[in-house]
Specification:
The chain is of the alpha/beta class and about 280 residues long. It is built from nine helices and eleven strands. The strands form three sheets. It has a six-stranded parallel β-sheet with strand order 1-11-8-7-5-6. A three-stranded parallel β-sheet has the order 3-2-4, with helices on both faces. Helix 2 crosses helix 9 and helix 6 packs across helix 9. The relative contact order is 0.18. Bound molecules: 5,10-Methenyltetrahydrofolate (GUE). 5,10-Methenyltetrahydrofolate (GUE) binds next to helix 2, strand 4 and helix 9. 5,10-Methenyltetrahydrofolate binds next to helix 2, strand 4 and helix 9.
Length: about 280
């Protein structure tokens, strides 16, 4: 048996086609959505991601504003960049690329952002809205995962989901998203303190691996026919290594390629948050 490919690249292309139309409609009304990025330091991985986001913007007609600061930037300097984007009418949404250098207080910076311009959906106000289950920009990776499952008709309602990893950007937020009434999944949030990871994963109809540990999810842990989504982006010898071992494809019913799975969906949903913010603001 070989798993159906959950093609994030193709699904992201569809989302981007829809966004291109909406951006054109906004422009006719004199509104140009603009994504800002704040990048601190010169981590090569982060440079690549940020460059990719600006390329995506160009593809759908979104303007982009790039703020690059040295690794030595002070808290006050990053705050000044945030204040400027909050005030800039050209910037309808922006992100502060994570992780930030350790000497910076990331939480204080996130809180300083205008929640209405939060393209990542990671502002504490917007995460709080997600907890309260009221409308807010959604975290991009979790939202992308839900749309990818829906695109391939993988049932979410009533499904047992094992989310592996409790990080804010993926695991914890995805747990909140999937347990809303509209999704109605049952979520087990696994983490480094989980006693029997294999036992939890084995029961799952949907497995989301977002731990950042290469090959954490092995073939013997996956229920035959389950949908498996690989969020891992570790680098091993310069190549991207996912959290899911390759031979999981032999037992899973659905599987994301990596690259080409969750990553492109994350980027498409970032653009979507920028366009929605611009639509709300008009
Ligand atoms: N504030 C903030 N928001 C983020 O969304 C954010 C962040 N910080 N910090 C870093 C992580 C990582 N991340 C990725 C997004 C897309 C791909 C992606 O599209 N990857 C391609 C492969 C790209 C390659 O080959 O390097 C793929 O999966 O097909 C990867 C990684 C967003 N992040």
């Amino acid at each position: 048996m070989s798993a159906v490919k959950l093609d994030g690249k193709a699904t992201a292309a569809k989302i981007k086609a829809d966004l291109t139309t909406r951006v054109a409609a906004l422009k006719e009304r004199g509104i140009t959505p603009g994504l800002g990025t704040v990048l601190v330091g010169d981590d090569p991985g982060s440079q690549i991601y940020v460059a990719g986001k600006h390329r995506d913007c160009a593809e759908v007609g979104i303007a982009s504003i790039r703020v690059d600061l040295p690794a030595s930037a002070t808290q006050a300097e990053v705050e000044a960049a945030i204040d400027e984007l909050n005030a800039s009418p050209e910037c309808t949404g922006y992100i502060v690329q994570l992780p930030l250098p350790r000497h910076l207080d990331a939480m204080a910076l996130l809180e300083r952002m205008d929640p209405a311009k939060d393209a990542d959906g990671l502002h504490p106000i917007n995460l709080g809205r997600l907890v309260h289950m009221v409308d807010a920009p959604l975290p991009c990776t979790p939202h992308g995962i839900v749309l990818l499952l829906q695109e391939y008709g993988v049932p979410i309602k009533g499904a047992e989901v094992a989310v592996v990893g409790r990080g804010i950007t993926v695991g914890r937020s995805l747990g909140l998203l999937l347990t809303r009434r509209s999704e109605n999944a049952t979520v087990t949030l696994c983490h480094t303190g989980t006693q029997d990871l294999a036992g939890h994963v084995r029961r799952a109809d949907i497995v989301v691996a977002a731990a950042g540990v290469p090959d954490l999810i092995t073939r013997d842990m996956v229920k035959p026919g389950a949908a498996v989504l690989d969020v891992g982006v570790s680098r091993v010898n310069g190549k991207i290594a996912g959290d899911v071992a390759l031979d999981v494809a032999e037992v899973a019913g659905f599987l994301t390629p990596n690259p080409g799975g969750v990553g492109p969906m994350t980027r498409a949903l970032l653009l979507s948050n920028v366009v929605e913010a611009a639509e709300r603001a008009q």
